[in-house]
Design goal:
The chain contains 3 helices and 18 strands. With about 400 residues, it is mainly beta.
């Protein structure tokens, strides 16, 4: 009931604003349901886990003046049947985005965006909104953007605020002795758009986690620098690369890690223009006994896009035990029609370090049907053949299986 009241109050408030002040406003929203059959434990003797998730988003874009935009997006995320019954209430409602943006500050090509906001950079290998998730990722903070065609972003985001705000007026007595154990994320990101066929990004990202798991040592002070490139080679070939280096300190250990990725694709010169591509991602890892931390961390990435749809590697480096990851992939795309499209992805996964490196092979098949401008249907089925390392980790050696049926309506 409380959630329904909040939603209704939000709509009424915005509607009254429009009626009274004639402020331009646009509503948007999305309802997405996804049913999954999950047999990813490599044990055919266990039951396949089936469940359905629902994500509902409703947003309002408001323009109180010609150079100021406000966007508010509320979200409810849930799984069917997780409430005791449908007469009960589970507080799943949250603010997914809520920010204002001031454009062309002081008449210059400078935009300021402050509040809770999604961020996605490059291919989303390091910073992404994770749209596949039933919740999705957003960041709390501020961002300055300089330029229009070629842009330079400076941002500061709070990942974790450990200090409880002082209730009432802040005085020397109430604030004294409060240790700073926040986790903050800072970035500088330059996008160069030479022409429609080539783009290059250069970035520097800094994470500062002042918690002390080891007394006297911050959990993380890490710099990530790199470059993302994407473009076309003639009329049929395309490429995508990203190189990144991580340096700094992690719980007292020196950080020295890197990421290398590259892919080349070919579009066939036929009416339907099917595509095929091959690529490799290499994320460095650590050996047992290393004094330095050599494992590359994908930070705030949308890893579902890259390392198999079955999400065995959704958290790198945790899901690879710190040994890093090598992913050799082949991807094919075929549009049966304007509204019916097919994708097939094959991955060979190995760790970058360790005595036993074979993680396994994954095949993902996805059929996407666009019913009309508002509704889409997606069906996917995936299989994973475990390698020796995954057999040891999971304790099973059967074929891993997973499928999903997704229905999306956007307005």
């Amino acid at each position: 009931m409380k959630q329904s009241v909040l939603v209704i109050a939000f709509i009424v408030m915005v509607s009254n604003l429009v009626a009274q002040t004639q402020v331009p406003i646009k509503f948007d929203g999305q309802v997405r349901t996804r049913s999954e059959a999950d047999g990813r434990d490599f044990d055919s003797n266990t039951d396949v886990n089936t469940f359905t998730m629902l994500r509902t988003r409703f947003g309002a874009a408001i323009q109180p003046s010609s150079d100021v935009n406000v966007y508010i997006q509320i979200q409810d995320s849930r799984a069917y049947g997780t409430e005791p019954n449908t007469l009960s209430n589970t507080a799943n409602l949250d603010i997914h985005q809520a920010y204002f943006q001031v454009n062309d500050l002081w008449g210059k090509a400078i935009d300021l965006k402050v509040g809770r906001q999604e961020m996605a950079y490059g291919g989303q290998r390091l910073i992404g909104s994770v749209g596949w998730s039933n919740v999705g990722r957003s960041f709390d903070g501020a961002k300055l953007t300089f330029g229009k065609k070629n842009t330079f972003d400076l941002f500061s985001m709070i990942i974790d605020e450990d200090n409880t705000p002082v209730g009432g007026p802040a005085t020397p007595t109430t604030t004294a002795g409060r240790a700073n154990t926040d986790f903050n994320f800072f970035g500088a990101y330059y996008k160069h758009r030479k022409n429609a066929n080539y783009m290059v990004d250069i970035y520097g990202l800094f994470e500062s986690d002042l918690n002390e798991t080891l007394p006297g040592e911050n959990d993380l002070n890490r710099l990530t620098v790199g470059s993302y490139n994407k473009g076309k080679l003639g009329s049929n070939f395309n490429f995508e690369t990203e190189v990144a280096l991580q340096l700094g300190k992690r719980r007292g250990a020196d950080v020295s890690a890197f990421m290398l990725t590259g892919a080349v694709g070919y579009t066939f010169a036929t009416a339907k223009k099917p595509r095929i591509s091959v690529g490799i991602d290499y994320l460095s890892g650590s050996e047992v006994g290393d004094s330095d931390y050599k494992t590359f961390d994908t930070m705030f990435a949308t890893n579902h896009k890259f390392y198999g749809y079955m999400d065995y590697f959704i958290n790198v480096p945790l899901n690879v035990g710190g040994f890093g990851l090598q992913d050799i992939m082949v991807k094919a795309y075929y549009p049966f029609s304007k509204n019916l499209k097919f994708n097939a992805h094959f991955h060979n996964f190995q760790t970058a370090k360790g005595d036993e490196k074979n993680l396994g092979n994954e095949l993902d098949l996805v059929l996407n049907y666009k019913y009309n401008s508002a509704a889409s249907f997606i069906f996917g089925v995936s299989a994973f053949i475990p390698g020796n390392l995954f057999k040891q980790v999971f304790g099973g050696e059967d074929l891993g299986f997973w499928s999903h049926t997704t229905l999306v309506v956007s307005f």
